[in-house]
Write a structure and sequence with these properties.
The mean pLDDT is 87. This protein has one domain. The protein has a two-stranded antiparallel ribbon with strand order 1-2. Helix 2 packs antiparallel against helix 3. The protein has 117 residues and is mainly α. The protein is elongated, with a radius of gyration of 17 Å. 69% of the residues lie in helices and 3% in strands.
């Protein structure tokens, strides 16, 4: 495991993208944990759906975007480290994709928190 982490931070793009992604997700998670007790029981998570109860979700469903992003970051990081020697450009694309995914998730969560509160 330690060898994989060393390989991960040998590439500057991979190291920076993982560091920034983890920082953004940590910031977002802290902001959710601070404001969780002030949130209503139902929040508008699914704004693209039809009117009514289909648009709202329980407050605990706010954790699902975090879990999905962490899952995708883990998969992309593992694949990126595995293929870094053979296809370095694809490896960097995977890391940048994870970074953009964490940026968009952070924007979504912060926007949702500002709308609700």
């Amino acid at each position: 495991m330690q060898r994989m982490i060393k390989k991960l931070f040998n590439d500057k793009i991979a190291g920076w993208s993982i560091t920034i992604s983890a920082s953004l997700l940590f910031l977002c998670l802290v902001s959710v944990l601070i404001t969780y007790r002030f949130m209503p029981p139902y929040i508008p998570l699914y704004n693209k759906l039809a009117w009514g109860y289909a648009r709202v979700g329980h407050t605990f469903e706010l954790i699902f975007p975090f879990l999905l992003v962490i899952l995708f970051l883990g998969i992309n990081s593992y694949i990126g480290v595995s293929i870094r020697q053979k296809i370095p450009l694809l490896s960097r694309f995977l890391f940048v994709t994870g970074l953009s995914l964490s940026i968009f998730t952070t924007i979504f969560i912060i926007k949702l928190l500002t709308i609700v509160l």
